[in-house]
Design brief:
alpha/beta, Rossmann fold, 2 domains, 8-stranded mixed β-sheet, 6-stranded parallel β-sheet, 14 helices, 39% helix, globular, hexosyltransferase activity, glycosyltransferase
């Protein structure tokens, strides 16, 4: 049993924000929406912090935030207008929620109480054990006051990796789970500049302790004297003034070749990946890690901790996948920087080829389309859905 264009239920994505380009969901949610819209399904995004998308086929509705200047409450991104819109959705609709611990995530799940609405929800890495340790008490209170009751109405969870399926089950959620990884775009490659006198290891992402930046800086300080000509660039938007903390560490410890360079967007971000000889992500917990895929697409080999599900770096011969901790990161960095330029370029080419084989948006959108059709009762359960 398969659905046709005239009977497909519309999909309403609900995500707190798509405004920050450096945030994973700000890229992956619109990309997924646009890819499924290309298959003929009507798609909309509802958010508190929006931006204009390049696709006219996807409607973006940005809602006014309540209590936008009130301490504590403003961080919850509450929007009564968004909640009201959810409650008034027409029947025979699918709601695809993204993220946890914010009020839009509650609104998107609670609507599943209606029998004519089917909800699929993506935790987006927020149920990982290490992720849950940050603001633990706040998340515990939020779960019991708001999210727990709403989560009961989720028909299916959306995981982007096998690891995230485990996170969902470990948290005690028993509904079916659809495994659909994030995809990636494949822009044309720009010329890579080779500068033997100044090689770069790049971290790019949100500046937050979860990303393992403190570990990275300590390790880099301990080995930089062994790496003449190498520099560490830490790029990305600041989160709660952690960038200032890391700058103080660099100044205090005298890390001569490490620098916090701030956020980079658009073509500047692409060029940052392309100009780096190596990409590094020593994260404590990721459900996917979009920046790893972005680096590989630009033919930049990656060094990633076991906190992210990137064991394929080694099986596809395009990087290093190391245990969390200073010693494993140090070993990986020393190995990676000891390779010749030609060896690193070969690893990078392997990485882009792997991304093209498995992470193109069109094929992933087809998988999500099968899940949507199943949720609306118009197709059989697809193989990507697990129920145990």
């Amino acid at each position: 049993m398969t659905s046709d264009l005239t009977t497909r239920w519309p999909v309403h994505h609900v995500v707190a924000s798509i405004a920050e380009e450096a945030s994973g969901p700000s890229y992956s949610v619109p990309a997924l929406a646009m890819a499924t819209a290309d298959l003929g399904r009507k798609v909309a995004i509802h958010t508190v912090r929006g931006r204009t998308l390049p696709s006219k086929e996807v409607t973006v509705q940005t809602f006014k935030q309540d209590f936008a200047t009130t301490p504590v409450l403003k961080s919850m991104l509450l929007s009564s207008d968004l909640r009201q819109t959810m409650m008034q959705l027409p029947g025979s609709s699918i709601v695809h929620g993204h993220g946890l611990w914010l009020m839009p995530n509650v609104s998107s799940a609670a609507i599943g109480a209606r029998p004519d609405i089917s909800v699929i929800h993506a935790p987006r890495g927020m149920l990982g054990a290490n992720a849950l340790r940050f603001s633990r008490q706040r998340k515990r209170v939020f779960w019991h006051l708001f999210q727990k009751q709403a989560a009961k109405h989720v028909a299916c969870w959306h995981a982007t990796s096998e690891k995230e399926i485990s996170d969902i089950r470990d948290f005690g959620l028993r509904q079916p789970v659809a495994l659909i990884p994030n995809g990636i775009d494949f822009p044309n490659l720009k010329a890579r500049s080779v500068r033997p006198e100044r090689r770069t290891v790049l971290f790019l992402g949100r500046i937050h302790p979860k990303k393992g930046i403190d570990t990275l800086l300590r390790v880099w300080k301990s080995i930089e004297d062994k790496l003449p000509g190498w520099h560490l660039a830490i790029a990305g938007p600041d989160d709660n003034q952690y960038a200032d903390e890391y700058k103080r560490y660099i100044e205090k410890e005298g890390a001569k070749t490490a620098k916090i360079v701030g956020p980079v967007y658009g073509s500047d971000k692409v060029q940052a990946y392309r100009d780096a000889e190596l990409f590094v992500l020593p994260t404590l917990d990721e459900n996917f890690g979009m920046t790893v895929a972005e680096a590989l697409v630009q033919e930049t080999p990656a060094i990633v901790s076991h906190g992210a599900p990137w064991e394929g770096l080694e099986t596809n011969d395009c990087g290093w996948w190391h245990a969390i901790g200073e010693a494993p990161l140090r070993d990986a960095l020393l190995d990676a920087t000891s390779r010749t330029d030609e060896q690193r370029m070969a690893l990078g080419a392997n990485g882009r080829a792997w991304m093209q084989r498995e992470f193109g948006w069109p094929s992933l959108a087809n998988g999500m389309e099968d899940v949507y059709s199943w949720l609306s009762g118009q197709a059989d359960q697809p193989d990507c859905v697990v129920t145990d």
